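Question: Now follow the chain.
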Amino acid sequence: MDKADIKVLIKQRATFKTKVTQFLTYLNPLNSCPNLNRLQVSELNIRLTKIEEIYSDYDSVQSDIENICEISEEQYAEREAFETRYFGAVALAREVLARSGNSAGPALDSRSVGSFSPHSITFFDWTNRHVAPISPGPRIYCHKYLIAVHAHPTAEDPFLESIL
């Protein structure tokens, strides 16, 4: 391999570092929450699964870099720094999930979709971190949307991703 190949591998490694940093950025505020609601638990589980999937790819790229470089002590230090952050993030995510356990806070239930009533619906107020009743009015579309999203949590939706 030549210099161009090593640059590509180093860029790939940087991508893995960025993913871990983004995961930690998402995870740290959740760590300060005493209880997570079901939506937060579900999203954290999905993100944790995704972050766990990148390790083997990272290991392959990092091993290639270590094998190419003549002075690999610097590369071993890179590996150690990445693994410390990576495994710390995974451990923290598992701890947050274990702490929330079955005591996940209230969330919309898919059973409420069939019996929709604007007077009986609640929503999670992200600003104040509590469940609040919904009053009928102009925001009802948003709440119907949240019920639909909750009923189908695996559906990909750019709008939902942009507000979370």
